[in-house]
Design goal:
Blueprint (H helix, E strand, L loop, with lengths): L30 E3 L20 E3 L8 H7 L8 H12 L4 H24 L3 H6 L3 E6 L5 H13 L11 E6 H12 L9
Parallel strand pairs: 3-4
Antiparallel strand pairs: 1-2
Helix pairs in contact: 3-5
């Protein structure tokens, strides 16, 4: 398994609660804490314990309601988790778009922190590089849902969208997972991931 501290390795050092045992995890949960006050920064991923109420399933809220119904055809209506997520968003006067933007900002900041640490470069120098950002989307998403996510990425100020020498690409999650595994386990050493 590659060293998570060397350039090109996977990020495996996620912010977390004291109790979270996340050693070796390649992915952090798509989860945000409920706001406690206007001043408090939202906790995200492993910082939010499994036991506390939190915003989850919000990425699916970027899909149009008709597309959601088609995606969950065969279920009675929609999964209870999705209904709970919509209800929680309503009660806390927020939207799937705002939650996705907040989550992506946290994730991007963590990626930048790790990149600065690994390369020993200043943050501003990293942001000047031609960055190639690839974001995975569910395989059953249509163009409209991907366009909504593209808008969220733009609002989250992820460079790939604002740095003109950088690029932003979306790929379906199975493809993204395959690319990550090939890179993580160095299955094809000549392939750049």
């Amino acid at each position: 398994m590659p060293d998570s501290r060397k350039p090109g390795g996977s990020i495996m050092c996620w912010p977390r609660t004291q109790a979270a045992n996340i050693e070796g995890r390649l992915k952090t949960p798509t989860r945000l804490s409920l706001p406690q006050s206007d001043q408090e920064a939202r906790r995200w991923g492993f910082e939010v314990s499994d036991e506390e109420d939190s915003f989850q399933w919000f990425k699916l809220g970027l899909m149009h309601q008709d597309d959601l119904r088609r995606a969950f055809a065969g279920w009675l209506d929609r999964p209870s988790q999705l209904l709970e997520a919509e209800d929680m968003q309503y009660r806390h006067e927020t939207s799937a778009t705002d939650l996705a933007k907040t989550y992506l900002r946290h994730l991007w900041e963590r990626i930048l922190e790790e990149t600065v640490t690994r390369f020993g470069a200043e943050r501003e120098k990293i942001l000047e590089l031609a960055l190639h950002v690839v974001i995975g989307v569910p395989a059953n998403w249509n163009r409209a849902a991907v366009d909504r996510l593209r808008h969220v990425v733009e609002e989250a100020r992820i460079p790939g969208y604002h740095n003109h020498s950088s690029s932003l690409r979306f790929c379906i999650e199975p493809e993204a997972a395959s690319m990550a595994l090939v890179g993580h386990y160095q299955l094809l050493p000549d392939l750049a991931v």
